[in-house]
Amino acid sequence: MIRAVGLLSGGLDSTLAARVLMDQGIEVYAINFVTPFCNCTSKSAGCAAVETAIGQLGNIPLKRVALGEEYLAIVKAPLHGRGRGLNPCLDCRALKIMKAAEHMREIGASFLFTGEVLGQRPMSQHRRAMAIIDKHTGVGDLTLRPLSAMHFEPTMPEREGWVDRSKLLGIEGRSRKVQIALAKEKNIVDYPCPAGGCLLTDERFAEKLIDYFNHCETPSIRDMPLLKIGRHFRNTAGHKTIVGRDEREGLMMERLAPPAMHLYYPVNFGGPHILAQEPYSDAIRELFYKYGKVPGDGEASIEWVFEGEKKVCVL
Ligand code: SF4
Q1: Is residue 131 part of a domain?
Q2: With 94 labelled, which of 30, 53, 105, 277 sits at a CA distance of 20 to 30 A?
Q3: Do residue 248 and residue 159 come from a single domain?
Q4: Segment 222-247 mean pLDDT
Q5: Are residues 193 and 260 in the same domain?
Q6: In the prediction, which pLDDT does 194 show?
Q7: Taking the C-alpha atoms of 159, 181, 63 and 145 in order, what is their torsion angle to the nearest 10 degrees?
Q8: 190 and 259: one domain?
């Protein structure tokens, strides 16, 4: 039996691509990537999407890969440009395909496949972008795109007869009508909507990340969770302050606070958690007044945590 490794996001396209090949008798192994910027890593619905897809495909084998520092490095300095946010889609796709190729070799699979559809995404799924990705990965001839295969020259799996090209598809463009009809036909009934799950495409998050890169000499994925929460301010001295927006973020700030940062939170009034690179100052006090419900009777107190020590201060 011919074995193939498929990049499975849990979305409709990659699930369909797997199903199309499985219907030809290909033994499919799935690989799924999570990045520090994947919304699905922080919401159970995203993870459930991959589980659901695997279930609908008949519990095929799944390898999960967490992309860390090397991923952050390409976000900081991509070789092939970025989209509207800070999304380095071509480098991102290329890295994932190269990781999938490693898995392909490990398990003795013959080729790779993706759920990409020609013309569906503006940055990484047009013909030139796909050609760049294929050249960069060095495994372009082994990378089959079953949903759009008829728009490309036959790849090795097709030329060698490992897959029947006549049963592959020629889908193109942003409409998902064909995929939805095909899903119905193939009894794939549960799949997430296509709205983006990548924080790098969010322009406001991109601003925070650019600011981080500009002020951090040694970027690390360990710092990413704090970038995802709160209002971020940078003062003229270059120091960062983060103001939590709700109780959930406050609890996360307590958990994530680096020892070198100062954490402040209200003792006897409603207000935000504040994490700052600077010791207590009028600027911190003003933030409590701006975002909290500070009582007017002068009784407001805050707790100040720094390097493991905690003290109560009058605001
Ligand atoms: S949107 Fe994000 S996850 Fe998707 S290809 Fe672009 S960088 Fe990668």
Answers
A1: yes
A2: 53
A3: no
A4: 96
A5: no
A6: 59
A7: 30
A8: no
In-domain check, residue 191: yes
CATH code of the domain covering residue 37: 3.40.50.620
Measured in angstroms, how far is the CA atom of residue 73 from the centroid of ligand 1?
Answer: 14
Q: Are residues 37 and 90 in the same domain?
A: yes
- The maximal CA–CA distance of the chain, rounded, in angstroms, is 81
**Is residue 167 assigned to a domain?**
yes
Do 190 and 242 share a structural domain? no
Q: Residue whose CA is closest, atom 1 of ligand 1?
A: 198
Ligand 1 lining (C-beta closer than 6 Å): 87-89, 92-93, 124, 198, 200-201
**Centre of ligand 1 from the C-alpha of residue 101, in Å:** 18
Atom of ligand 1 nearest to the CA of 38: 3
Nearest CA, atom 2, ligand 1:
198
Residue 298 — pLDDT band, cuts 50, 70, 90? confident
33, 94: one domain: yes
Q: Which of 87, 136, 137 to mutate to test the pocket of ligand 1 (most atoms within 8 A of CB)?
A: 87
Structural domain span for residue 246 = 229-314
300 found inside a domain: yes
Nearest atom within ligand 1 for CA of residue 198: 2
**What's the number of domains the chain is made of?**
2
Q: CA 153 → CA 96, 144, 156, 157, distances in Å?
A: 22, 10, 10, 11
Mean pLDDT, residues 57-73: 96
